[in-house]
Amino acid sequence: MNILVIAYALNGLLMIAMPVGLAFFLTRRWKMGWGIWWIGFATFVISQAGHLPFNWLVDSLLDKSAMLYWPRTSQLLFSAAFLGLSAGIFEEVSRYLVLRFWAKKARSWRNGVLFGAGHGGSEAIILGLLLLLTLVNMLVLRNRDISTLVPAEQLELVQQQVAAFWSAPWYQTLLGALERALAIACHIFMATLVMKAFTDRKIIWLFAAISFHALLDSSAVLALEYFGPYWTEALLVVFAVVSIFLTLALCQPEAAPPENSNPLTR
User: Fold this and answer.
1) Which residues contact 150 (CB under 8 A, 6 or more apart)?
2) Quick check: 191 and 115 in contact, CB under 8 A?
3) Are the C-beta atoms of residues 76 and 115 closer than 8 Å to each other?
4) Pairwise CA distance, residues 144 & 139, whole Å
5) 228 vs 6, 182, 219, 231, 240, CA distance in Å?
6) pLDDT digit string (tens) for 89-114?
7) Which one, 9, 70, 188, 260, has the greatest CB density within 10 A?
8) In the Cβ-directed half-sphere of 41, how many Cα atoms lie within 13 Å?
């Protein structure tokens, strides 16, 4: 087994293990149940049920619009702004609605942190599983005659994809796990902002979460296009550090809940 296979496998396993390990740490440290983490997990899935079809629909409409004739820079700026804003609206509004109508009794900073850890963890775990599935598929394709597995019209494209997959530097494959760790920190911060919309009874915190999310995603799109993956990760490190600092700054004193307590039944 070569180092690239090990790196791809490690990357996928880390994307799954990190959020689960964080959940174990937080629930044990704060003596809380897993209920709000699982609700955060489900919230990401719920948000994507609307987010992905919406993006696909808009993308299909834009492919038939005058945007095709815009300068490349204008197209990229529009796409970055649109993708950032759509992600911010769908994910943060989903968090708000879930806290408003489902997790009605989860009203504390710790609940917000665990809720965000579940949301970001859901994304990481799903992507990790997809990456491992891709690795298995690529191993099969590497050891088989691709022309016997795919239609002739798709053969060249599949060959290019397989070649690109196996030509990546092994250390670059680990960027996925790093990115998910940084993203979880950002998701926790955004979840605590949405939680403050309830604890402070001020809707402005929801708009703050949407704005931060939109800025994060649009900046990542532009950085990846202009500066490549390594500088994009460096930018995400900045966002993650800011997120951790502000999350801690939002912390408010609260009584420790009873051991194995569930905020949904208290």
Assistant:
1) 158
2) yes
3) no
4) 9
5) 24, 17, 12, 6, 18
6) 999 999 999 999 999 999 999 999 99
7) 188
8) 14
